[in-house]
Specification:
The protein is α+β, with helices and mostly antiparallel strands. About 4% of the residues have low confidence. The protein has 3 domains: 145 residues, no CATH class; 123 residues, Immunoglobulin-like, CATH 2.60.40; 181 residues, no CATH class. A hairpin with a 2-residue loop joins strand 3 and strand 4. The radius of gyration is 29 Å and the shape is elongated. A 6-stranded mixed sheet has the order 13-16-17-18-20-19, sandwiched between helices. Strands 3, 4, 6, 9 and 11 form a 5-stranded mixed sheet that branches. The protein contains 10 helices and 20 strands.
Length: 492
């Protein structure tokens, strides 16, 4: 169908193009909102572009959609690096592969702006270079798509068979179910979502259906998990066929309850939603796109505290989530490190509250006191070993193979980021023991005249490059050198 005024395709293309342009500005910021908006707008633009055929203006839209599709992967790459996610480079590799595989024989591939975009992606090596690519997309102007060449099967048109002896049969439409968002108690779902076991939460799901298969009356959305006993913890969703023509936006809310808590060091519960129509005999296979996976955290720190201090336990949940995204880190090593951090978190909290350590304490004194406090915990006890050899040196302590390096700073107040000078030594012990993670605890015992900091700011995860190896180092700063709290009121 050529050069026909079609206000519906104009509205869909213009609307989705505007949404993409608006989302581009925030796609690389720390907030995930911009990226999620861009992904949603990209799906909508792709639906509009899929309905147009070849033509000068049409090819401009197709070239732009190709670039946006690749840029979504690049934005995911930056967010993955920022959040220290596992194997973040896979997004960059995927984007470069898509750029290199762009079919040069297709008419839209001749677009000069697309050529420049693909060249930039091909030479990309640093996230700082994404701003230039983002700016190119921001200034990518497109004409209005008022008169469009449509595909023969677009917008409820029928493809007629010309084969001898065959009757006219309608072309089967492809149906896309796009998962747009999940909300938990009215708030957008995040990468990790904490649900207190035994408590009911409202889980809201929103999907977009491009068109409803002929003959189908109901769309089922069902949670799938490895352990079938967990499937009933999340709700099924059932949508009846809406009136009118697609696309349709469907929203449903159900109750989610994690019935069983899991241990502090174990993996989160993982659920994947599957989509199925009650009858697809008159349509093609359903294509499912968008983020439909939920990671739900079911650790009950109220019933099973790790340190004895609720604020520290909550912070350690965040530390554990960061460690889970570290590439190549074994789950057992994460669990053992979290047990250790339970001990060090308790020491750090006690030190701030009760003034356990005096100013000017020596390193051997701190090692002796820290060892005594850690070994007194039932979950550490005999597994804490002193001074094993590793990496050509002697470590201070190990716990189930995790090296622990203990240091003292008596000159001034410092924070976790200030102790990078000890990272190489700690990393050497980590690698020598065949691990990918170590703990560095520093007693900062400079003389103080006022309170300093909070425990949550004194426990932090760092990624450290040592030769060809990347290791995780958890720094725990323990504060000392405090006067008695009553002395603060006597100061003038």
């Amino acid at each position: 169908m050529k050069n026909e005024l079609n206000l519906e395709i104009f509205r869909q293309a213009f609307s989705s193009r505007s949404d993409v342009a608006a989302a581009l500005a925030e796609a690389l910021t720390p907030s995930l909102n911009g990226l999620e908006r861009l992904k949603k707008a990209s799906v909508e633009l792709d639906e509009a572009v899929s309905k147009i055929a070849q033509g000068n203006v049409e090819d401009q839209y197709r070239a732009y959609q190709t670039a946006i599709d690749i840029f979504v992967l690049l934005a995911e790459w930056k967010h993955a690096i920022r959040n220290a996610e596992k194997d973040a480079q896979r997004f960059l590799s995927s984007a470069k592969l898509k750029a290199s595989e762009a079919d040069k024989s297709l008419s839209f591939a001749a677009d000069e702006r697309l050529k420049g975009f693909l060249a930039l992606v091909g030479g990309l090596s640093n996230v700082d270079e994404l701003t230039e690519i983002q700016d190119q997309l921001k200034h990518w102007n497109l004409p209005l798509l008022l008169f469009a060449n449509l595909r023969p099967d677009g917008f409820d048109k029928l493809r007629v068979s010309t084969s001898k002896g065959c009757s006219e049969t309608p072309e089967k439409f492809e149906t896309t179910v796009a998962f747009l968002k999940f909300d938990i108690d009215g708030k957008p779902a995040k990468q990790w979502n904490y649900l207190k076991p035994g408590t009911a939460y409202d889980l809201t799901l929103e999907v977009r259906v491009s068109n409803w298969p002929k003959g189908a009356e109901i769309l089922f959305l069902t949670p799938v998990t490895i352990d079938r006993r967990e499937q009933n913890w999340l709700p099924d969703f059932r949508f009846k066929k809406p009136g009118g023509s697609g696309p349709f936006i469907l929203t449903g809310t159900g109750r989610a309850v994690l019935e069983v808590a899991h241990s502090f060091g174990s993996r989160p519960y993982e659920f994947l939603y599957a989509a199925e129509f009650d009858d697809t005999s008159n349509g093609r296979d359903v294509a499912i796109v968008g983020h439909r996976r939920l990671l739900l955290e079911g650790t009950d720190i109220a019933s099973n505290p790790l340190t004895g201090f609720s604020n520290v336990d909550q912070h350690l949940l965040n530390v554990r989530d960061k460690l889970r995204t570290f590439h190549g880190l074994h789950l057992d090593d994460i669990a053992n490190t979290m047990t250790l951090l339970g001990g060090f978190g308790n020491i750090a909290a006690q030190a701030l509250r009760d003034g356990l350590f005096e100013a000017g304490m020596s390193e051997p004194e701190y090692q002796k006191e820290a060892t005594k406090l850690l070994r007194s915990r039932s979950d550490i006890g005999e597994h804490l070993q002193g001074h094993p050899e590793a990496g050509g040196g002697i470590t201070d302590l190990t716990f189930k193979g995790i090296p622990i390096e203990l240091k003292v700073e008596n000159s001034k107040v410092l924070f976790p980021k200030d102790f990078t000078k000890f990272f190489n030594q700690t990393a050497a012990y980590v690698i020598g023991l065949g691990k990918r993670i170590g703990v560095l605890s520093v007693l900062e015992a400079s003389t103080k005249s006022a309170p300093v900091g909070i425990v949550e700011d004194d426990i932090e995860v760092f990624s450290h490059q040592s030769g060809q190896s990347q290791v995780a180092i958890v720094v725990v700063v323990v504060r000392g050198g405090f006067p008695k709290p009553s002395s603060y009121s006597r100061q003038t």
